[in-house]
Specification:
Blueprint: H1 2-13, E1 26-28, E2 34-38, E3 43-46, H2 47-57, E4 62-66, E5 80-85, E6 88-95, E7 98-101, H3 102-106
């Protein structure tokens, strides 16, 4: 009986841990919007806010939102830009001498490459 009471009290006072996700894990909200897990903030955000937070917290330069890439000679490895296309936006990251989708460098959830303008950046 004492063991049962002790076990009950232990379970009662032990905090329940939330399910941990990897940074950039994508899930759908109840209203079917895509949400990304931002591990730095321990919260779910829109993909756009996830991109912005990553770009601003990244140690390399963030070139902001633009429909034109910066001059090639001015960029460095890991610089980011939120490229604006008619289909939407996509976070790009300069890596190994060329611009790539940030997800292709960072390897977040595959849903990032299908979001907004990302499927169209190489056309």
């Amino acid at each position: 009986m004492k063991i049962s009471i002790l076990l009950f009290l232990y379970l009662l006072i032990t905090p329940v841990q939330a399910e941990e996700h990897e940074n950039g894990f994508v899930s759908k909200s109840p209203d079917e919007k895509l949400l990304a897990w931002n591990m730095n903030k321990s919260e779910w955000t829109s993909i756009e806010l996830f991109w912005e937070d990553f770009a601003k917290s990244n140690e390399a330069k963030y070139w902001g939102l633009s429909n034109k890439y910066p001059n090639y000679d001015d960029v460095n490895n890991f610089d980011t830009i939120l490229i604006q296309l008619k289909e939407g936006t996509c976070l790009m990251q300069f890596f190994h001498s060329r611009w790539r989708r940030a997800n292709d460098v960072q390897r977040w959830h595959d849903a990032f490459n299908e979001h907004s303008g990302c499927p169209y950046v190489f056309y």
